[in-house]
Amino acid sequence: MPRRASCRATGHAPGTTTPERPREPLAADWLRGGQGPEAERRSVHVRASGGRMAVLGFFSASPPTFGFLLDIDGVLVRGHRVIPAAVEAFRRLVNAQGQLRVPVVFVTNAGNILQHGKAQELSALLGFKVEPDQVILSHSPMKLFSQYHGKRMLVSGQGPLVENTRALGFENVVTVDELRMAFPVLDMVDLQRRPKTTPLPRSDFPAIEGVLLLGEPVRWETSLQLIMDVLLSNGNPGTGLATAPYPHLPVLASNMDLLWMAEARMPRFGHGTFLLCLETIYRKVTGNELRYEGLMGKPSILTYQYAEDLIRQQAERRGWAAPIQKLYAVGDNPMSDVYGANLFHQYLQMVKHDGAEELGADGLWKQRPSATQSCSSILVCTGVYSPKTPGSTEPAQGEEPPFHGHRDFSFSPKLMEASHIVNDVDEAVQLVFHKEGWAL
Ligand SMILES: [Mg+2]
């Protein structure tokens, strides 16, 4: 049964187990066999020496059988500021040699940044070296859609768009800005941007074969207009409007978050809001639903499969022989982090019961058989979720929370119920270590 509790300003959330920091272990503890069922218990050789016990050395710790999926915004950072509990959490997660004690990946729905840039930013904030391959951006699973990597794709978003798409494997992309430059008469909302003279129509622009929606763009009206133009013209926005093809060109999108939390006291529009606009316009104009070939970022199962694979690879690189059986996903957004972790947990149970083959046709990534048994959701109160924050998803008494999820993910209150609610990520780590019998 999921445990729910309210966030409190200080102390531990009720209903969660937040043990006190234990005293340093003594040699006598090790002689007696350590501290109970501690999975990471270190073995110590001792022998009598002049009536005293001497510690000779440590065997390596038992390998972890669990890993963490940590959200970034609202869990580790708020805007450009680190959340102090995140620094504390990493003191627990890292051993004396500066290495992680368990596999950790950072799963963010951000996408307008490079993977190595995010890793550098996190390293500076957390005081711990984060490797780029520990960072999963919302669009990272687009690497798996190799059937589109050679196609000419229109890309929408901001930041290092071309570099990002190249890193994902796309070889031939056109940005919305490049398309606007090629067809200046398409972008008409801003009067200042309208061409003073009518440019000659051009026919040398190769047709666009698909659309990548990486993250929220700036100047939404431009992106909305030009993406619509591409979809309605089957990739030839310079031509007159014929009958809009349906199904339309393939669209891959990442980051469905309606809202996200930055420095402002109230949540900000996320890419989910942009997608909502695009879907609404498309349906209104054509009478048909906008369809996605792939939707990724949390809460998509695809993203969790991708994260699970990186966790497994990390454990293998560290030489941890025991399979990773449990995942703990820590996040601040009930709709993306909690819903996603619970959906993935549900998927893991289905796979265990029915096998993965039946699920392959749904666009899910067929990966190697997984040892993962469960994925628990842990909700923190340092970001979007807060009972006292305007726009929070905490319902008033007797009311259903508003559904902030994407159109293609059904409203399921049960999936938005966290396995645990704690104040912050440090409490989340303490909770998991306690559950797993690890020293804090
Ligand atoms: Mg977040």
TrEMBL record:
UniProt keywords (A-Z) are: Signal
- Write out the ranges of the annotated region (Disordered): 1-25
Superkingdom of this protein's organism: Eukaryota
Q: Name one Pfam family in it.
A: Hydrolase_6
Q: Which InterPro entries match?
A: CDP-alcohol_PTase-I (IPR050324), HAD-like_sf (IPR036412), HAD-SF_hydro_IIA (IPR006357), HAD-SF_hydro_IIA_CECR5 (IPR006353), HAD_sf (IPR023214)
Q: Which GO terms describe its biological process?
A: glycerophospholipid biosynthetic process
Keyword Signal annotated: yes
- GO terms for cellular component: mitochondrion
Family, according to the entry, reads as follows: Belongs to the HAD-like hydrolase superfamily.
Q: What is this protein called?
A: Haloacid dehalogenase-like hydrolase domain-containing 5
Whose protein is this, by species?
Pteropus alecto (Black flying fox)
